[in-house]
User: Fold this.
Amino acid sequence: MLRFSVWRSSIVFAAYLSAAWRVMRRHLRYAWRDRQKLAWVARRSLSIIMKGELRGVLARHAVESEVYADYPAWAARSEAAIDHSSIRSRTVGHPDAPRISIVMPVFDPPPAYLEEAIASICRQSYPDWELLLVDDGSARAGVAEILDRAVTRETRIRLFRQHHGGIVAASNAGIANASGDFVAFVDHDDCIAEHALLLVADAIVADRGLDLLYSDEDRIDEHARRHAPLFKSGWNPELLRVTNSVLHLTVVRVDRLRAIGGLREGFDGVQDWDCVLRVAENLPRSGIRHLPHVLYHWREHAGSTAAAPYEKAGMPAKQRAVIASLLDRRREQAAIEMTDGGWHLRYAAPEPKPLVTLVIPTRDRADLLRRCLDSVAQRTAWPSWDVVVVDNESSEPATKALFAELVAKGRTAIVSYRGEFNYAAECNLGVREARGEFVVLLNNDVEIISPDWIDELVGLAARRDVGIVGAMLYYPDDTIQHAGVILGLNGVADRPYIGYPRGFRGIDGRLGVVQEVGALVTACAALRRDRYLELGGMDEEFPVSCNDVDLCLRLRAQGLSVLWTPFAELYHHESASRGYDDSVSARRRESEDQRRLRERWGEKALIDPYYNPNFTRRGRAYELAGSSGAPST
Assistant:
């Protein structure tokens, strides 16, 4: 056993070393001749090491390498499975088939890449497009000739020239001259897939209410190798608040673009993110569609943002300006902070700070409850909180003594729940007895880590469009226990990233930011008390499992967001008080709960909108789906 453990540790260490070398090689490839870029790499590396996040960062890159090892072959199979002929027959010539104007600002790109970008448009299998080339004062040799030849060879290409004014001015010139129904944005050194516009048009024909579409993407390195796919979430406005999660390919109805005045001056470099935020504010969710296909190939080379985030000067300040503008339009108050994982909005809690009641079901195990409440008392910065302990027939003298001690100290009420364990019923009883404006459903086997955990949860839960907010939970060995729940994974739902090291940001970096999720584990989750009661609380027909998933689905059905935040951190000694019940009756009960959930919501509701359909629904989360390469449904 020892020999196996040493062997396994050696394999993991070798994977981390390999990941570290790949990361450094990728960054240094584009930075080694530039002091500013080298300084950025050094500062970033030092910050990761000082914060103890190196293991998590290396794990991310090791996992990305592993799960995407087959990506080129997978992509080839996936794209070969697209039936161009069938899609063309139902789209081309249809009365609702759109004309798509591709806007391509041009400013001194490498000539070979510009030619490839234009060629990728000309190869489109969908015919009704125009390409608007806007030369923004290019002086590089060969660029003007390439643009002139393109116009000569293809009647669907138009060329406009202007003095150098930046990408916003050039893009707006293209938008102003667009004759299409929709505008697609393509950079002067990138490419789009041959079927990109065909799939866009097909979606628009199928749904006339669409105004904004976006696709998945990948990157092309200097050797024309495709890698680093970005398989995106379905429409996730909370994620979009802190990062440009839409990126490429973005297609917007031209009337919507013109209604907001096009792209905004002064936002060059983040103009696409700002534009999507402003367009989306006036759209229902039904007007926005994610196309789960890799339709855009982002070029990596020295000088491109794809190669490294430090290529564009002043980017953090511009990103902050985008977020500040969003908050101002929405009349929301939040401190804007940059973290190693991304941007964090610390929403202002209501003033004066409302009472928050922690609802904690328990049964004996006084040691767990004491540790939980001691950590709350010692590490919680929020001034106004109290506790309702829901006791399920505890009998141990130590527990009785602890209850008496807690009541004598104040701030804690003990209410009795009699009968067989029913987590949903116990939470419902606790919330009914709570005095707080907000309640936090809290397991008795958790420990507080971050002092501002209630500030974070309540700041988010207080927003009018938010239903419930869950926390980041770790096992005591500093590995991930809960980072949200994926619906439809390995049954009705499962947790991703279990056992990954603290500091791990997910293969797409999303574990560093607040986002919407399909569902949560309610070992630590906050919401308004009145909202919980109006909803009828948890369904007591789910005594052990699925009660939290059902609660989240009901909140989402009311148009409310289910959020997860990495900025409220707790340890969770999972099932420490009840233990793991692996009896035949327990498995039968869990199976019955899952059957009931499926009957209530149907299979469609158990397809997670935030989990890309190109990922598997069986096995390890975020593995590529299926040997056939086709998106799972």
In short: The mean pLDDT is 88. The domain at 87-330 is CATH 3.90.550.10 (Spore Coat Polysaccharide Biosynthesis Protein SpsA; Chain A). The longest strand covers residues 288-299. The first helix runs from residue 2 to 31.
